[in-house]
Amino acid sequence: MSLLLPGVMLGGCTKPQAKTPPPPSVQTVIVGSARFAPAIDVVSRIQSTSNVVMRPETDGRVVRILASQGQRVKAGQPILVLDNVQQSATLDASRAEALKDRANAERYIFLNQQGAVSTKDRDYYVTQAIQSREQVRANAATLGYKFVTAPIDGELGNLDSVKLGDYVHQGQAITGIVNNAVLWTLMDVPATQASQVKVGQPVQVESQGNPPVRGVGRVVFISPYYGENNEKASPNTVLVKAEFPNLTGQLKTNQYVRNRIITDVKDQLAVPAQAVQMKASQAFVFKVYPLRQVLPRIQASDQLPEAQKQTLAKLPGSTPIAVQVPVTLGQMQGNLFPVLSGLSKGDQVIVSNTALLRSGIPVRVTGSGSMN
């Protein structure tokens, strides 16, 4: 027992050797291409392509209201009737006169063919018949002005401003009729982005309600002027008009919507957002290299401790090493960034535990996916 004690005491006084921590576990993806659709986002109001104000074409007192507010009407359908007793009587009298003159004209045409009357007499009565016929048309038009009709198919607006017995004047605004089947979205696009917009580009429209109502249209007009939409529009914006079908019928004129003008669609090298780190406005990712490929650069670097270089030199050449590289990225779409520079197709980048990494350390790859 006494012989073992010194040994035990010696062993108890020996400092244990520090163990090298295991390399961090990471997951990676192989860089590939993804489809990107660069876009311009704008909030705007929508308007109907068919929206008119109903105005009577003559003065008169309202004697009948034939429709109600919110009702769907057809073009030409009467909405209001104004007092028209005198006009109706005038039209009836002119029709009777026209029938008489037509009969006289037909009789004198027959007599002229028989040689019983002169051509001059025939022409007089024929002229009378034509004038009477045109007078009927004029009187019918005058009577028609007493019927305020819908100029388009659509939905009637507020009719509370007019009641039975009210006297209305020519040109007075009665109500509106709107057809929301096809809509315009009128967008003020900043001048810095206006050059990217082209006629025919798709526009995604989304209401601000919950759940949102969505639609898809196309750019149909780009103004040649700045700040043309309204007086409040910025002088550094360009009016862009897109047209789209209101398939659900839920969107309404003057409603605010979010618009996304798709300026391009292309396949481009991409990297997941999880792989990206930002330092002083510069984006970085960690690429995985086999040790044999980067060891010369590591040994030449003055950023790593000499002890770390010696440790790495003892590892197998196939050991995966994390190396931080700067990249230039475009605007993120979904969960992906388009890669403008810094990566190539087939590169292996780390997408997990990136906060635990530093450039030049070994890692243990526990899973790897692919971009496409």
Describe the structure.
With 372 residues, the chain is α+β, with helices and mostly antiparallel strands. It folds into three domains: 25-35 and 267-370, conserved putative lor/sdh protein from methanococcus maripaludis s2 fold; 40-50 and 174-266, Elongation Factor Tu (Ef-tu), domain 3 (Beta Barrel); 84-145, Helix Hairpins (Orthogonal Bundle), CATH 1.10.287. 24% of the residues lie in helices and 39% in strands. It is built from six helices and 22 strands. A hairpin with a 6-residue loop joins β11 and β12 (214-226).
Shape: rod-shaped
**Topology as H/E string?**
HEEEEEEHHEEEEHEEEEEEEHHEEEEE
Mean pLDDT metric: 88
> In which range does the helix fraction lie?
10-25%
Largest sheet: 7 strands, antiparallel
The helix-and-strand class reads alpha+beta
* CA distance, first residue to last residue: 69 Å
Radius of gyration (Å): 42 Å
Strand content: 35-45%
Care to count the β-strands?
22
Number of folding domains?
3
Low-confidence region ranges: 1-15
The number of helical runs is 6
Q: What would CATH call the class of the largest domain?
A: Mainly Beta
CATH topology of the largest domain: conserved putative lor/sdh protein from methanococcus maripaludis s2 fold
CATH-scheme architecture of the largest domain: Beta Barrel
